[in-house]
């Protein structure tokens, strides 16, 4: 056979199958483009912030995994639809070796068009993406447009490998099949599936466990570990329920005579039972992808929009100066520098608080705390303790209280303590008062680790508690003394022009960290840029990956409708021949499409509704405790996504009707 015939056949086949190949090629182009842009962005030397660079690198890794799975998955739709056509070629005399050459040419054409167009569009839109990222970050940085040869090479090699892998998979499928199997390849799965009760129960249990974990988690630290377990359980449960549970549900509807014996229902239910085996995975994929889009976009938008709440939660006051090893000299040096620089800048301090504290990680055990030398933040009941001398408490609160050596006040940032005594290490103290509030620490039940403030009679008592705890370790004596030393904190808000306030904070930070031993400063405005880079980067990635997953969702919907249209065409034609009117056929089609098409959306909304609580705990770790804001962002995201989902439904359903009619 002439070698030119393979090229002509390949081009003819691509043209004849344009309804399936054009969306596939367009999606492949977009995937190549989005990988190129992300890879180029992650290699840009102008990104000096490590947190933003790591976000981009992780996003690139997600796109790599997505591209492999998604292009393989969509390729399976194509080869399934082509099996009958390839079987005809085989019966007409084309050997499998000739068919393989034809498929090689088709893959080459698809790969060349997809990769070259994707890289060209990647080059074109790279600069625009940079500008969008800079706009989101809200800060001007030196991130010029750079052409990366490495990005070009990696993109070319990576997607060539993917297309080669899909080609080998297709050739393997053809090699294993005989002509009869190929002719019936597009009709596989027409045998009525059995009700798999074990898988159905497994799906219900898995989903139930995932939901239970999401609903019962009440601590941000526990939410980190529980969230990933819940996600795995929900994914497994979703696939099991769509695969086996959907068949059980449809058969249950078939047993319901009032529902089933209606013209618009019986043909739809019967048809779905027979084809659910091949549709279940696609529906589950749509559900999981939809859930991912909703979660990513709603959380990242919430973090970005709630930036002010985040900063105020993280920094209750605008500026804080501290030293980790408090001495009279270092304390006085901090106060002197602050006083001098505020006077020079003409800026006033307000709500100023000065106090010493000794902090340590501990485990909550009954009515006491087992002290830990070093924080083990993998334990659910870990807490943080701050011990403050009574003198400093009286100064900050404006009181004149007295305490005995074995007496303490206690204050919890979360739930009330509710005990008459508290054991700290080996020592037990009488709780003479449980405080309702403290100026230095507002109530915050959403914080990552529960915090307890314990007011003791004097600073020496705090040093002794810390010293006893660290003496049992292998630390050198001088390190023990340093760890047992109290911190000194000076925190306040500023009153003056915004520019003057920012400048004086920068000057104070520079001087304190240079001139004071163990001096350290942080503040709301000093950290604003860093938070914008972190949360702005997350928003950018959320929208970027959300768009990618949304594209995948649309394509899977499209292929599902096209595939079902070809499968249903003959069945509905037979129904019309035996007396079913076109109007009844249309109602039956609408009933089937609506029933199946919107089921993944309903499940996705249910998933995010149940996960709402655990997501709020995770957001609290990122200092966003504004639950109403996250609720509003989630509702708006769901509404917008549902509208988009409906538009996609109307467009794909139109193609379905054309094929069936």
UniProtKB/TrEMBL annotation:
Transmembrane segments: 21-38, 58-78, 99-132, 152-172, 197-217, 223-250, 282-307, 532-559, 593-615, 627-651
UniProt keyword annotation of Membrane present: yes
The keyword Lipid metabolism is annotated on this UniProt entry: no
Biological processes per GO annotation: transmembrane transport
Pfam families per record: FtsX (PF02687)
Topological relation to the membrane, as annotated: Multi-pass membrane protein
Domain of life: Bacteria
A GO CC term attached to the entry: plasma membrane
Subcellular location: Cell membrane
All residue ranges annotated as the ABC3 transporter permease C-terminal domain in the record: 61-173
InterPro entries for this protein: ABC-4_Integral_Memb_Prot, ABC3_permease_C, ABC_permease_BceB-typ
Keywords: Cell membrane, Membrane, Transmembrane, Transmembrane helix, Transport
Recorded family membership: Belongs to the ABC-4 integral membrane protein family.
PANTHER family: ABC TRANSPORTER PERMEASE, ABC TRANSPORTER PERMEASE-RELATED-RELATED
Name this polypeptide is given: FtsX-like permease family protein
Organism the protein comes from: Sporofaciens musculi
Lineage summary: Bacteria, Bacillati, Bacillota, Clostridia, Lachnospirales
């Amino acid at each position: 056979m002439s070698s030119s015939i393979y090229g002509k056949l390949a081009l003819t086949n691509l043209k004849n199958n344009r309804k399936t190949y054009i969306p596939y090629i367009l999606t492949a182009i977009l995937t190549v483009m989005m990988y190129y842009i992300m890879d180029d962005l992650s290699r840009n030397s102008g990104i000096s912030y490590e947190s933003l660079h790591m976000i981009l690198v992780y996003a690139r890794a997600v796109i790599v995994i997505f591209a492999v799975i998604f292009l393989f998955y969509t390729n399976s739709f194509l080869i399934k639809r082509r099996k009958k056509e390839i079987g005809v070629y085989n019966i007409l005399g084309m050997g499998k070796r000739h068919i393989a050459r034809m498929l090689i040419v088709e893959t080459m054409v698809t790969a060349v068009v997809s990769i070259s167009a994707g890289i060209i569009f990647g080059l074109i839109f790279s600069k625009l993406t940079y500008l969008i990222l800079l706009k989101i970050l809200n800060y001007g940085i030196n991130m010029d447009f750079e052409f990366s040869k490495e990005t070009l090479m990696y993109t070319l090699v990576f997607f060539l490998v993917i297309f080669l892998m899909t080609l080998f998979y297709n050739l393997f499928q053809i090699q294993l099949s005989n002509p009869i199997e190929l002719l019936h390849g597009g009709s596989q799965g027409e045998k009525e599936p059995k009700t798999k009760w074990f898988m159905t129960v497994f799906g219900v249990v898995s989903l139930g466990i995932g939901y239970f974990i999401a609903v019962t988690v009440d601590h941000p630290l526990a939410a980190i570990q529980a969230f990933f377990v819940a996600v795995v359980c929900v994914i497994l449960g979703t696939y099991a329920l769509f695969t086996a549970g959907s068949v059980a549900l449809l058969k249950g509807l078939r047993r319901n005579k009032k529902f089933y014996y209606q013209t618009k229902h019986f043909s739809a239910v019967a048809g779905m039972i027979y084809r659910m085996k091949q549709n279940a995975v696609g529906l589950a994929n749509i559900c999981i992808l939809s859930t991912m889009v909703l979660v990513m976009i709603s959380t990242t938008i919430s973090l970005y929009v709630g930036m002010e709440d985040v900063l105020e939660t993280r920094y209750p006051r605008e500026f804080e100066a501290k030293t980790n090893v408090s001495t009279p000299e270092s304390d006085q040096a901090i106060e002197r520098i602050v006083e001098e620089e505020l006077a020079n800048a003409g800026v006033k301090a307000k709500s100023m608080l000065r106090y010493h504290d000794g902090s340590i990680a501990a485990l909550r055990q009954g009515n006491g705390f087992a002290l830990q030398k070093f924080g083990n933040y993998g334990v659910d009941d870990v807490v943080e303790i701050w011990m403050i001398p009574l003198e400093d408490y009286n100064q900050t609160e404006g009181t004149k209280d007295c305490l005995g050596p074995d007496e303490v006040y206690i204050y919890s940032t979360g739930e009330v303590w509710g005990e008459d005594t508290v054991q700290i290490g080996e020592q037990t103290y009488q709780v003479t008062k449980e405080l309702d509030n403290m100026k230095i620490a507002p109530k915050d039940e959403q914080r990552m680790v529960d915090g307890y403030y314990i007011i003791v009679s004097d600073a020496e008592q705090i040093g002794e508690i810390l010293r006893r705890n660290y003496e049992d370790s292998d630390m050198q004596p001088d390190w023990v003394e340093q760890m047992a030393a109290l911190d000194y904190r000076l925190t306040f808000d500023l009153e003056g022009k915004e520019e003057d306030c920012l400048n004086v904070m920068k000057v104070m930070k520079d001087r304190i960290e240079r001139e004071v031993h163990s001096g350290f400063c942080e503040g709301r405005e000093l950290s604003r840029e860093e938070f914008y880079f972190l949360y702005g980067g997350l928003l950018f990635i959320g929208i970027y990956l959300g768009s990618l997953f949304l594209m995948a969702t649309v394509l899977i919907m499209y292929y599902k409708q096209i595939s079902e249209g070809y499968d249903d065409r003959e069945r509905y034609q037979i129904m019309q021949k035996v007396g079913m009117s076109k109007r009844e056929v249309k109602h039956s089609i609408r009933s089937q499409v609506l029933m199946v098409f919107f089921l993944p959306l309903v499940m996705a909304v249910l998933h995010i509704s149940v996960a709402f609580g655990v997501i709020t705990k995770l957001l609290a770790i990122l200092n966003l405790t504004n639950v109403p804001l996250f609720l509003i962002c989630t509702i708006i995201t769901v509404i917008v996504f549902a509208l988009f989902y409906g538009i996609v439904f109307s467009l794909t359903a139109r193609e379905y009707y054309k094929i069936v009619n």
